[in-house]
Amino acid sequence: MEILAFGVQADEKPLMERAFAGHHEVRCLDVFLNEDTAPIATGYEVISSSVNADLNGRVLEILSAGGTRMIAQRSTGFNNVDLTVAERLGITVARVSYYSPHSVAEFAWTLAMAVNRRIVRASTRTRDFDFRLDGLMGRDMHGRTAGVLGTGRIGEAFARIAHGFGMRLLGWDVAENPACLDLGMKYVSKEELLTESDLVSLHVPLMPQTQHLIDGAALRAMKDDAVLVNSSRGGLIDTVALVDELRAGRFTGVGLDVYEAEAGLFFLDKSLQAIEDDTLARLLTFPNVLVTSHQAYYTVEAVGQIVETTVSNVLDYRAGRRSENVLVPRS
């Protein structure tokens, strides 16, 4: 059987081909799955989608009409999939429940330190042989307070690094993580966390109840000189409200690896085109903001685990097995 994989990055392709070798053929495409590209999947029983695929009801209907019966999503998040429609159409959907939490946690810290110590501005200056220090002063993280919204595997890994810096730890989640408690983390309300934290990092999934978790009120509750980092899902932050606060001169730095309207932008080369998204364009003008293109997960270890789990999900589907990765079981 040949599997069709959408949205495969150049670095990811050899890992995909190697992992599927001896099991099934895999055809890798760099285009993302959406309503325009879904007809390409006609005749493929199994497809694999990336995190930025648009698997709304209409796309699923096109896939179903073309013979697709299984979707193996190469991500943990699945807010882009209409699971109700998938179940109605009898399409099995599986995801990657787990991959290296260190990849995302370490990148979140990379963003935090980059904006705190003005690394991008410093690098740009030195390339122009400008070696002044004006405007590059950062702050010690040691002794300050880190607020971790979401203390699952990734949040815990982030907290361990913060603990290594010698930071006070505040956490917010629906359930307390014993490992975080062992680090000395104190669980508090979201409001208290935002008010007291010098660094706020988001590690919660995007669901209806977490959409714009960080809205205008939450942003206004934060310290004027706080650092805000989001390496989870773009929809957790109300970006329009964030731009308003940045215009007011607030925050030491903001590091974003995700953006709520990133579909159709991230993972693509738009350098020769006019960007029609006024909010993103404005966001990128602030010198204390660093935006990267959803790359926190992008390490050899994490992508390797994602690919291997994707292969396992396909093999389980073919064998009629069900695992914790299955969101919609085989009918």
UniProtKB/TrEMBL annotation:
Belongs to the D-isomer specific 2-hydroxyacid dehydrogenase family. Residues 110-296 form the D-isomer specific 2-hydroxyacid dehydrogenase NAD-binding domain. This is 2-hydroxyacid dehydrogenase. Residues 8-327 form the D-isomer specific 2-hydroxyacid dehydrogenase catalytic domain. Gene3D superfamilies: NAD(P)-binding Rossmann-like Domain. SUPFAM superfamilies: Formate/glycerate dehydrogenase catalytic domain-like (SSF52283), NAD(P)-binding Rossmann-fold domains (SSF51735). It comes from Streptomyces actuosus. InterPro entries: D-isomer_2_OHA_DH_cat_dom, D-isomer_DH_CS, D-isomer_DH_CS1, D-isomer_DH_NAD-bd, D-LDH-like, NAD(P)-bd_dom_sf. PROSITE patterns: D_2_HYDROXYACID_DH_1, D_2_HYDROXYACID_DH_3. Transmembrane segments: none annotated. Keywords: NAD, Oxidoreductase.
